[in-house]
């Protein structure tokens, strides 16, 4: 364990002087926000110093480096995490208490950098944590967005997007590395050069030269021994582009136009689920962070190993998270061929041995493509490489295959006037993985079956994981204490040790402790919900939670139907009194995703009806937690008794909130989808509830003909009534009826099988409700879920990547 403070006194001295030198006031006169600055800057400085040592050591040992390219890193607040990882949280808390200060109040001041949309970005952040903890030299490469994902406010039931100005008060963890800036060129004209031996290469004439400036954030592993970094790029105009003539002539707008055009590249994070990205800014972001990252990696490699390029793949692994960094292939080719003078074949061998790729989704509309004319005019030289990669690929394909035309149509990079980024990622790399067992199978046999037929050896599964240090230890101190008291703290670095808890699965004292810890977390969430949404929740009611991005396939709508049905039954039959339950929702919808935004309004309308109806509101409550993000997720997961994971089978890549809830002892109510299946295999079907259509059922229904209308007709009394209530005024108080949602079901024939899964879902929930009515029985299931959750630590996932893909 790397101690960053020798003693409490040592810490207190440092903290006092940090307040003085950084803020210019005594700690007593500082605000909590300033105290946060002072404390974070100490931890960040210590981390950077350890980071330098980590690097020197790795260089001496010639350790292989892993570069993780991701357009999103949803890192969340860092201070608490780093205090825990350095093993000084208690010391700091006590030291501050002696000064009359509260660590919790200071921690609450930290901004939550929203540099990701959801699961994909959070995965990248968990991987950074696990790589550092496992002693892997893992470096993140991403974008420093001026504004993160929008802040979600709820006004009159509707989502309203507000700018997320996360840098307003500065970001104490980052350091700007001006001297490590690199130039990235867009547009221009490729010019061919040839030497006397016929060797040729290209340079680019003209074009827009953009300066990419890196900002480094330290990544501290548990124990504090290894500190690596996350490098985030910001776009700025290269000096020489300032239009001095225009400025001197007084045309300041013209002089500054280039500046604002360039800075736009790193201004905003694109929301996912927003439909086809036709926007040129998005390709610019993708190329900027790929090119800047690779230029820097080659520079570092050359410094460490000289121009010994053929051994590059032995020392460097380049991982591409989804298709956003797909230009890694052609850009590395460009750098090796045009700038380092390598021949095509040699460069291609190096490229394909270095790059690996993770696919995250099976939804065809999410498979990224770009129109060729737009792509070619923005990145002409990269396009030439893609064209040549595609030509050689098709040439290799057409040899001795009778179905080559079919394979070509599935796997070519250039097709129908588009550049297909997933295909580019696969062809340029040596590995493609899915993120859960079922997802990988769907890739192999459906979405990417052409590639699987050609190169089965490239395919492998890496079931996602989450940082149990953040989502259990940090988020849930009460439960963590129960665990550590029972089995020691070895689980912090070896999550499999959580399994030792299982011997207490029938121990009444430990089960009572579990119930007490859950109650504490529920009280905390209830206070938070009251504060942010005004809804009062009873901590003695069952907390049934669904928090995640809003998307039709995640089926928040199915959950709404269950609650509305319950409400109807209570109204019809006053003697029907289910166990008091609080239904808690949270999540953002992409700005342009109208359907998802309507479902948010629907939940808020339902909450308005239910919470204000005295016939039911002693038993039923509905709350929507605005602005779901890492900070409040850490308050939500620990408080859940039921975890809703109800996506349409075959649609969810993996899901990771299912794992976070599991660690925190919530019982899953889930479909046969993503990692839910692996969770069920591990904890046993008697310790959670799985319901509804499976992938093969859905395929059969689609083949035979699924008719939402029949489902509606077959159960007019309950299901049909709920459908009708979308448009009959029942829920219309906040901004009217829900025709769009109704039509998605009844006109568009219920693409996501909400009606088909309604009955088994309600049935499964009824069974779970019975269990929750008996705290000991619930606690028994709960402890087994926690005990078997070690498999879903991202430490395990990272060890698999390290061994099977990166070979470190
Ligand atoms: C874990 C997490 C997600 C992913 O949730 P899923 O339910 O797996 O889609 C999204 N957002 C935040 C803030 C998270 O912490």
UniProtKB/TrEMBL annotation:
Its EC number is 2.4.1.1. The lineage of its organism: Bacteria, Bacillati, Actinomycetota, Coriobacteriia, Coriobacteriales. Pfam families: Phosphorylase. This is Alpha-1,4 glucan phosphorylase. It catalyses: [(1->4)-alpha-D-glucosyl](n) + phosphate = [(1->4)-alpha-D-glucosyl](n-1) + alpha-D-glucose 1-phosphate. SUPFAM superfamilies: UDP-Glycosyltransferase/glycogen phosphorylase. Allosteric enzyme that catalyzes the rate-limiting step in glycogen catabolism, the phosphorolytic cleavage of glycogen to produce glucose-1-phosphate, and plays a central role in maintaining cellular and organismal glucose homeostasis. The keyword Glycosyltransferase applies.
